[in-house]
Amino acid sequence: MKHYAIIVAGGSGKRMQSNVCKQFLILNHLPILMHTINAFYHTIYKPEIILVLGVDSQGYWADLCKEYNFEVPHQIISGGEQRFHSVRNGLLAIKDEGIVAIHDAVRPLVSKQLIERMYEQAAENGNAVPYVKTSDSLRQIYNNTSKIVNREQYVMIQTPQTFITDQLRKAYQQNYKQMFTDDASVVENAGFRINLVEGERNNLKITYPEDLRIASFLLEN
Ligand SMILES: Nc1ccn([C@@H]2O[C@H](COP(=O)(O)OP(=O)(O)OP(=O)(O)O)[C@@H](O)[C@H]2O)c(=O)n1
Ligand SMILES: C[C@](O)(CO)[C@H](O)COP(=O)(O)O
């Protein structure tokens, strides 16, 4: 069975408010995206890596690879308007059957153990989607007010979300919907049951400036 990793790095990082797209920012001496690709490359599965990049970023990435002597083999595919379109473009580059992990470029702290667990669980169950419980209380907002909800009924979803190619290909034939904020939502809407697997608290998504400082601390400790 072949193993693939689609790393989506086609976003512009508006919430980070930096001049350089956040996936290229330096985290403890290495661009975030290189940490992320290395994490997959160093697993026992050594997946074929498909890197989805915005057309405007591809030259910059080539320069970074030279500057950092980055030699992990990867195929570059152009991104799309939304994350959904970027994933779909990456998926079109996969011709064989296998297991595909889809991962946000901006989750560089993902562990080797979590990636391997996701591939194993997807092989057994068709898909695997990592989650963590919330330690905060949750409220639902409506009509200018809010109401407490039962937090035991909610979990927070991470990546790598991992699927057998058959499920992903069927799911990504659908047209884009606003509710498709991740791959599990696309696959579920195509009629497949989602298999939740425990994720990792450290597997944070670098979204806001303070996340970069937290990630830097976690990497060093
Ligand atoms: N059209 C898009 C949009 C997002 N992504 C990727 O999807 C991941 C998760 O998205 P997010 O954290 O929202 O990144 P951005 O869209 O870049 O950030 P923002 O929403 O703040 O602009 C990121 O690795 C991002 O590069 C992508 O490949 N293609
Ligand atoms: C895919 C994801 O990281 C799962 O938590 C999340 O849905 C991405 O959301 P974003 O708003 O595109 O960052």
Low-pLDDT stretches = none
Summed over residues and divided by their number, the pLDDT gives a mean of 97
> What is the string of SSEs from the N terminus onward?
EEEHEHEHEHEEEEEHHEH
CATH level 1 class label: Alpha Beta
Count of DSSP strands: 12
User: And the CATH topology?
Assistant: Spore Coat Polysaccharide Biosynthesis Protein SpsA, Chain A
What share of residues are in beta strands?
Answer: 15-25%
Give the helix level as a range of percent: 25-40%
Cofactors, ions and other ligands in the entry: cytidine-5'-triphosphate, the ligand C[C@](O)(CO)[C@H](O)COP(=O)(O)O
The CATH architecture assignment turns out to be Alpha-Beta Complex
Q: What structural category characterises the helix and strand content?
A: alpha/beta
Number of domains: 1
Largest sheet: 8 strands, mixed
Distance between the termini: 36 Å
The coarse silhouette is globular
Question: Helical stretch count?
Answer: 7
Q: Provide the gyration radius in Å.
A: 17 Å
- CATH level 4 superfamily: Spore Coat Polysaccharide Biosynthesis Protein SpsA, Chain A
